[in-house]
Design brief:
With 475 residues, the protein is of the alpha/beta class. It is built from 20 helices and 13 strands. It has a seven-stranded mixed sheet with strand order 2-10-9-8-7-3-4, sandwiched between helices. The chain has a two-stranded parallel sheet with strand order 1-12.
């Protein structure tokens, strides 16, 4: 018992050392006892051997138990709690495990064709062949990406406009690891050089909130969605932004707002720009769906051009996952619009340091695909046509879903399905109705009622509409 309590205060190494110390002390005691009793040599050796063996076995067992307990007690990560599973990943796993032949996935934000299959752009396939045939090396890219990629990303972002000549602006661009990587890097840069409260729309893409909160930054939500109209709460948005402290960072969706699919009009964008200028707020655009929303690159970059016209400085994070179908290639970029060449050079130098200490250099293959397509006039035209077709299928499925809901007599108004834009629709379904869709009809969607229009096909849209009608009536 004394040994046990003594060991409780010791490390594993100390326990091992102390065990053998006690063993040898016990051996000495046994030997002294045998000699004092005058036992014969043979008998002494026999008793000493048996007792030594027994004592050693018992001490070894005790040592193992105590060491195991000590390791568990001293585990550096013993206090780490199990994190909740990612909602979208959970939906994907549940969908894959579901054996129902009528199952439908409306959760994942990735394009699917009318057969429900992933789609690879033919222009991307051709660019890939072109890159392979060029027998290029695998050397590191520059910290901010290759000049060819930077030029291509800027051309796409501003729909081919030469903003340096037209607006006298200077843009710092850095290639990043996907859209999420761009966001993380942008917040790192802003937190270091332009700290301020981050304003995000309510609702917004879940990862916006997670990144800001994970970094320990202050987050405030501004009103955006109006449940009554299933549209934009513009007055609430403007009122909130008008009260924001100077220097606050306003995160905006350049087009195809996720999750609502509701975008401001051109006039509303001008009003937002005016508030940002007058209140000295810093606009930050997340641009994940350019061209993918309407099929028109210029139309989907309207918000950026308005802010340029208004003379504002701002930051843009750009993703090539949706509009190029490069989900797994992780291609993204940060663009910082500056007023002078000198400031742009300073920003570029500091952005490179943020990149260097984060992942050192960006990956090259996805970037080569993008710069090859945009830099080749024939491939660029082919890609734009494919992009228009992809966006067109989404628009078609919106119209079909609304038509099916209305023709089947689903309660309520469904015109918001077609007035919204982009990959997602904010249906207005309640969490209970969403749960019933999954449990009864094997239709998988997030509980806030957001659905990915890409998961709809001409084969399942009637089934989905019938299921929605049932849950609206009965849940």
């Amino acid at each position: 018992v004394l040994i046990f309590f003594f060991f409780k205060q010791k490390t594993a190494y100390e326990i091992s050392a102390c065990t053998y110390f006690f063993f040898f002390q016990a051996e000495d005691g046994i030997r002294d006892a045998q000699e004092s009793r005058g036992l014969g040599d043979v008998y002494k050796r026999q008793v000493h051997g048996e007792l030594s063996k027994f004592l050693m076995q018992r001490l070894n067992t005790l040592t193992q138990q105590l060491v195991a307990a000590q390791r568990q007690q001293d585990d550096v990560f013993a206090d780490v709690q199990l994190a909740p599973p990612d909602v979208i990943l959970g939906l994907t796993l549940a969908f894959k495990a579901d054996q129902d032949p009528n199952k439908v996935s409306l959760g994942v934000g990735a394009y699917r064709d009318d057969d429900g299959k992933p789609y690879v752009f033919q222009s991307v396939r051709k660019a890939e062949q072109k890159i392979v045939s060029a027998n290029l090396d695998k050397e590191y890219a520059p910290i901010d990406g290759t000049p060819e990629f930077i030029k291509a990303a800027q051309k796409l972002l501003f729909a081919g406009e030469d903003i340096l000549a037209k607006y006298g602006r200077h843009v710092v661009t850095s290639q990043c690891v996907g859209g999420t990587g761009s966001l993380r890097l942008a917040f790192e840069f802003l937190n270091r050089f332009k700290p301020g409260t981050i304003y995000v729309s309510n609702p917004t893409w879940a990862n916006h909130n997670q990144i800001v909160e994970y970094m320990g930054l202050r987050l405030v939500q501004y009103p955006y969605w109006c449940p009554k109209t299933k549209g934009l709460n513009f007055s609430g948005m403007i009122e909130c932004l008008s009260q924001a402290a100077p220097g606050s960072i306003i995160l905006l969706h350049a087009c195809a707002h996720n999750p609502t699919g509701v975008d401001p009009t051109a006039e509303q964008w001008r009003e937002i720009a005016k508030v940002c200028r007058e209140k000295r707020l810093f606009p930050y655009f997340d641009n994940a769906y350019q061209g993918f929303a309407s099929g028109d690159l210029e139309k989907d970059s309207l918000s950026l051009r308005i802010f340029l016209e208004e003379g504002l400085q701002f930051l843009v994070t750009q993703s090539f996952a949706k509009n190029f179908g490069l989900y797994g290639e992780r291609v993204g970029a940060i663009h910082v619009v500056c007023n002078s060449k000198e400031i742009a050079e300073r920003v570029s130098s500091q952005m490179k340091i943020v990149v260097r200490v984060t992942y050192s250099n960006p990956p090259i293959h996805g970037a080569r695909l993008v710069q090859t397509i945009i830099g080749d006039s024939q491939l660029f035209d082919e890609w734009r046509q494919e992009l228009k077709q992809v966006a067109g299928r989404i628009i078609q499925m919106r119209a079909m879903l609304r038509q099916e809901l209305e023709s089947q007599g689903a309660p309520g108004k469904w015109d918001h399905i077609t007035s919204q834009i982009g990959m997602f629709s904010y249906t207005g379904l309640t969490p209970k109705q969403c749960d019933l869709l999954t449990q009864k009809y094997h239709i998988y969607l997030v509980k806030n009622g957001r659905i990915s229009i890409c998961g709809l096909t001409t084969k399942n849209v009637s089934y989905v509409a019938r299921a929605i009608k049932d849950v609206v009536e009965n849940a």
